[in-house]
Design goal:
With about 130 residues, the chain is mostly helical. The chain has 6 helices and 2 strands; from the N terminus they run βααβαααα. The chain has one domain (about 5-130): Arc Repressor Mutant, CATH 1.10.1220.
Amino acid sequence: MFTHIRTSKENRDIVAQLTRKLNLGTENIISRIALTYSLSLDRKLDVNDIQNSSGKEYSSKVLFGDYIDYYTGMVALHYSLHISDKDLAKYVKLHIDDGLQLLNEEINSNSNVDGFDFLTEKIKDSLTTIVI
């Protein structure tokens, strides 16, 4: 199991901006949201496309709190990996970086949205697709 994850250099500022704009908690909360948002799009990212690791560093305990098994389990399931796979941390990083970029684009395209409205809209959209 990995002990640290480091975002890309570009996402160091993005996570700080999203944290201020969305007002949903600390940077690690925004990174958790980014990870799950990226995973929710059901895309497979290529581990060879991993970005630099010059950005924000999180210990796995700070990033995931008591829920590391759930977050890493989601990634492992998504890629059909064993939880101890050596590339699991790379996939976590890929989805955090991807999710931060996606969130940044979406939030910037709708400057009046706050964090609560953004999350409730995403939940509503997800529930709608499940019901249909």
